Amino acid sequence: MEKYIVNGGKPLRGEVVISGAKNAAVAILPATVLAGDVCVLENVPDISDIHYEIEMLKSIGASVERLGRTRLRIDTSTVNSAVIPHELGVKMRASYYFLGSLLSRFGEGNVPMPGGCDLGARPIDQHLKAFNALGASDELDYAMICVKAEHLRGEHIFFDTVSVGATINAMLAASMAEGTTILENVAKEPHVVDVANFLNTMGADVRGAGTDVIKIRGTRNMHGCTYTIVPDQIEAGTFMVAAAATKGDIWIRNVEPKHLESITSKLRVVGATVTESDDSVHVVGADRYTSTNIKTMPHPGFPTDLQPVMGALLCTAEGTSIITEGIWDSRFKYCDELIKMGASIQVNGRVAVFEGVEKLRPAPVKATDLRAGAALVIAALMAEGQSEIAEIQHVERGYVDIVKKIRALGGDITKVEIPEDALRKAY
Ligand code: EPZ
């Protein structure tokens, strides 16, 4: 079992280069199926979710070659199966994007009920609503979701709830359908726009991504392309908060400052200094922060994926801060861990009330999901002394080289392997 050992209390200083966006990449890899040709992807984050999707692509007959750490050559002309093996698909949430891409190209997709972070109920009814509207049937067979269509036809689809996954899956399915599809009440996240841009580079006709309405004119003339994935706004936001929380000074490079406006504005409100330039942001921390209230919302609102890291910072902000989670039912599990570090937090359903304490104290804690893990890394960097973070596989699903990047900023974090035997003796 691997853990992080963090000796906190040191400000992070220097510069960090942000990797490609996980939540764009995990949709773009499945989307290459539409090309039936060779795609070269650049700025691909080297994280375990991507490694699983490479295996999924290979399992359906695609050939995937690494041209470098962040470059992949994917040939989907040889895809000969519409079934994602159960043991692979359940490892992550985004395996469900193969439903949209396989359905679009072959009229059939079979994917296991997806896994991913446990954030409460994660239904896929809006994905199925879109597939059904385009003419596909769906069936659940031994925990496999099977979607099938003789012929996909463009439709007018109004989503009941704003969903990143359903918006992207509908774009994938509609790209090769006959006629025009109009999607309303869609997600506007930067990764939704990035997937639309990728589809267009492959020959699709997707317009309006980033607004409330997306219009897709279906085409069968898709082809390969070379595409560079957008920078990861959540990784960037995490390092922005880490700079502020450790009273540090970090230049965050390779970002799109426009995608970071909600976190930039919150950090300024609590007292950090944030300066934007073309493709960087510079965050300088303050000695003490003031409290604030946050409500997470779909883009351009405050992102739910940065809620836990902001929670870590608010533990020591003067006064009372209230975080209201607007997307997920269960995204405050990290608060129990922060409480072990001396934080004062009351959670009631989707609302958490933080009473600022003077400082956090080191403790052994565990990551309960990806962003919860990032929050605990930041909390451990804030707390003077040695903390241990367990269950770090969650963190490594989504952050490229997090240990290396923090160490380069002067943070004292090490990944250690604890032999199972030692664990058995300890408990
Ligand atoms: C994506 O999840 C991200 N994951 C999540 O990031 C992120 O938290 C979330 O969007 C919101 O921004 C990936 O992109 C792989 P949704 P997704 O569909 O697509 C409800 C991280 O830490 N809903 O936008 O699964 C749903 O229950 C991860 O990187 C339905 O009711 O989220 C939720 O309340 C965690 N029916 C809301 O919509 C549906 O069919 C938003 O979910 C689909 C969703």
Verbal overview:
33% of the residues lie in helices and 26% in strands. The radius of gyration is 22 Å and the shape is globular. It has 427 residues and is α+β, with helices and mostly antiparallel strands. The site of ligand EPZ has 25 residues, from α1, α5, α6 and α12. Ligand EPZ binds next to α1, α5, α6 and α12.
Keywords:
single chain, 427 residues, alpha+beta, 4-stranded mixed beta sheet, 23 strands, 33% helix, 26% strand, binds ligand EPZ
Topology:
Layout: E1 2-8, E2 13-17, H1 22-31, E3 38-42, H2 48-59, E4 63-68, E5 71-75, H3 86-89, H4 97-106, E6 108-112, H5 125-133, E7 137-141, E8 144-148, E9 156-158, H6 164-175, E10 180-184, H7 190-201, E11 205-207, E12 213-217, E13 225-228, H8 233-245, E14 249-253, H9 261-270, E15 273-276, E16 280-284, E17 293-295, H10 307-314, E18 320-324, H11 333-340, E19 344-348, E20 351-355, E21 364-366, H12 370-382, E22 385-390, H13 393-396, H14 402-408, E23 412-417, H15 420-426
Helix pairs in contact: 1-2, 1-4, 1-7, 4-6, 5-6, 6-7, 8-10, 8-12, 10-12, 11-12
The protein binds ligand EPZ.
Ligand EPZ binds near residues 26, 122, 371 and 398.
